[in-house]
């Protein structure tokens, strides 16, 4: 996965990066041995913040995290730089604290439902 570049003056390049990163995250969760595609993300809105010195810009996107089992969602805005660490921290928080997967009976290790086949 290539790094986010703020240098480009074309909004389309920034949008392509976000689309590619969302596909990367969804593929990683889909192929995870524990979650089996239970969680996924989508992108709702994006907007650009251009720098005053015309050296480039920073795109912000609303990322929505979904749980296929419970139907719970959580949305938050991230910029291209937040997607490397802050997004993963919040996605983990969504899985652990918002969806409370480790409090389910039976637990996710025993309840092996393959969500990759369900739409």
Short structural description:
This protein has 119 residues and is an alpha+beta fold. It contains two helices and three strands.
Order of helices and strands: HEEEH
Question: Which of globular, elongated, flat, extended, rod-shaped describes the shape?
Answer: elongated
Instruction: Tell me the domain tally.
Output: 1
Helix run count: 2
Polypeptide structure, described:
- Strand 1 and strand 2 form a beta hairpin.
- It contains two helices and three strands; from the N terminus they run H-E-E-E-H.
- With 119 residues, the protein is α+β, with helices and mostly antiparallel strands.
- The protein has helices spanning 11-30, 86-98, and strands at residues 39-50, 57-67, 73-79.
- It has one domain.
- The longest helix is centred in the first third of the chain and has 20 residues, at 11-30.
- Helix content is 28%, strand content 25%.
- It has a three-stranded antiparallel β-sheet with strand order 1-2-3.
